[in-house]
Each structure stands twice: as structure tokens, then as C-alpha cells.
Amino acid sequence: MIPARPLFSHIGQTASPGSGRSWQAIWRDAIIDPRELLRLLGLEGQADALLADGDTGFRLRVPRGFVARMQWGDARDPLLMQVLPAAAELLEAPHYSSDPVGDMDARVGTGLLHKYAGRALLIATGSCAIHCRYCFRRHFPYAEETAASGQWREAIDYLRKSADVDEVILSGGDPLSLATPKLAELTRALAEIPHLRRLRIHTRLPIVLPERVDGELLDWLQTIPLP
Ligand code: SF4
Question: Residue 109: CB within 6 Å of ligand 1?
Fold first, then answer.
């Protein structure tokens, strides 16, 4: 039987919704220490059994508001399992690869992937508010491969010349981790490419850090001239 705990009681005042802090401040307050996370959930006694015994190469990061939705005392909580660096990640498995979806084969420019007909994907940033253990880009070389470098020039040039591409995906990393003026700069440039018909935004931020959906972001969304 899992002990019941009131929502938010185990993560402290700072993570309560509506605390009035900026989304950037809440972002910076994320939990990055696995033992602190287990302690907040009453699981510190199971740390040695649950945690990876070595460097997984992908550190923990989870916003406190997301932790507040986890079930206190439950090591199998599905939200916890999304973020906790687990021992199983260090097991060797035949045919596993650090690029399981073939991103680097689809690279056509800095931070720009063109894998499918009609659609291109922009690595807008390497930052995420949460680090999901299942992420298929957890080993992606973000330091070199971010389309925002050079004010998006390389990506925009490629898209302008690729008349067959009618859909652009903003991905990453999480594109909404960029400051809103930076996103607006990008979408203004994309809007000038006549053959683009759709924009897709791959983000977890409205779920894992809903404070990101602020007035400035909503204003930007209303100005994007693409569906
Ligand atoms: S890119 Fe998406 S899936 Fe991967 S860690 Fe970031 S938010 Fe999670």
C-alpha cells in the first residue's frame, strides 16, 4: 500500500503552482541530484537499488512541479521512471546505438535534418526542462548541431532552396526553451519562405513546466502566419 500524501507537500513551497516566479526561475530550480529526488519521494532507502551505479552520460533534470505529480513512496511511479537514471541504462545490448533513429544520416546542415519527403526538422536548441530517459537524442551532439547558430542562416538558406519541403518541425532539445524573441526571429524568417505550409512544434514544456505558457508566448503564437 502506498502512503497517501497531499499534492505538492513533498516538494516544498517553491514549486507550488502560481508562485508568481518567472518560468526561467522555475526552470533553474529543477532537481538535478537523483538522491534529492528520491528523498523528496520518501525513497532514499532504495537509492542503491534504483540508481545507475556509474555515469549514464545523461544527467537527471526534472522540474519540481513535475515531481509534485509523482506518487510519494512509489518507486514504480511512471513519471518517476521517465526521469530517474536507472541501473538498466548501463547494460550492454546488442544492436543498440547512440543514434537509434539515424539522425546523423539525415543531417543536411548545422542542426537541420531532412529525413522524410516534404518535411525538415530544425534542432532549435539542445536545452530541455526535463531529461527523459527514453529520449532518442540523448547522445545528440548539440554543442555543434544547433540551427540557432549564425541566426538560423544555414537552415533558412537550405529551406528556401528546397521547394519540396512544405513542413518544418521545430525540435531539439525543446524549442520552447528558447527565449520568445528568439522564436519570433525564427518564425519571421520561416514565414518569408513561400512554399512552407505548416509549422510543427515538438515540445514537452506545456506539460512539464506549464509556467512557460506565459503571455509573451501566447502573443507570439498568435503572430505566426503558418498553421
Ligand atoms: S528532446 Fe524531448 S524527449 Fe528528449 S529529453 Fe528533451 S524533452 Fe525529453
Answer: no
